[in-house]
Amino acid sequence: MRLDKFICSCTLFTRTEAKKIIKKGVLVNGVVVKNVDYKIDEYVDKIEVNGEVLNYKKFIYIMLHKAKNIITATEDNFHKTVVDLLKEEDKILNPFPVGRLDKDTEGLILLTNDGELSHKLLSPKKDIDKKYYVEVNGELTFDIQNIFLNGIVIDDGYKCKSAKLEILSSDKKISKAYITISEGKFHQIKRMMRAVDLEVTYLKRLSIGNLVLDNKLKLGEYRYLTEEEINKLKI
Ligand code: URA
Fold first, then answer.
1. Residue 226 Cα, ligand 1 centroid: separation in angstroms?
2. Within a 10 A sphere around the Cβ of 209, how many other Cβ atoms?
3. Domains in the chain: how many in total?
4. Which domain holds residue 201?
5. Do residues 169 and 149 both lie within one domain?
6. CATH number reported for the structural domain that contains residue 8 in this entry
7. Which residues are catalytic?
8. Model confidence at 49, in pLDDT bands (50, 70, 90)?
């Protein structure tokens, strides 16, 4: 890995700042290096900046509060993506979104470069719960609650896994609920609601497994996961 990239990955320095630091001299295994594109082995070499040894951070874990009109992808020619919302220094380790939310869905997105964790969270065999807040344009009834619990059949004939619907309020014009699903088919909640003749008018993801969206994060904001959150997700 390039020395400047390494410094950015384990400090809060930007690439430009890292380059300036290197030009003044950084110790690589005790030898002064001033060449920004000097290649190091991040697992073996000892890098010191201002007398401090840098520990290589291999993985990055970010929770982001996605707003509408942002695409859950790493790049897109026409729209802003969740990765575009990250500062340059937070993109260095190439985090990618785990799973996807529709363009008009808000809420929790996990971004990481930890392929193993991503695979675990997305694996249909693992049944990881995803909880959403949903608003629909008609009544939510106990019948619908039971139909979802028993697995509703959607437009393509697929029988969804059991889903938990917690009705918060129900009215002919608008109903509000929490819905927890353990799979992630394309437009799943919208299609489940359509199967009972309802349209989703608002959807927001609140949690993935035991990772809960931090309510201090405003739309479009993000933060690093704490050690505790990372460890709980890996269980
Ligand atoms: N279900 C949907 O219909 N859309 C999402 O974005 C997530 C779940």
1. 26
2. 19
3. 3
4. 129-208
5. yes
6. 3.10.290.10
7. 102
8. very high
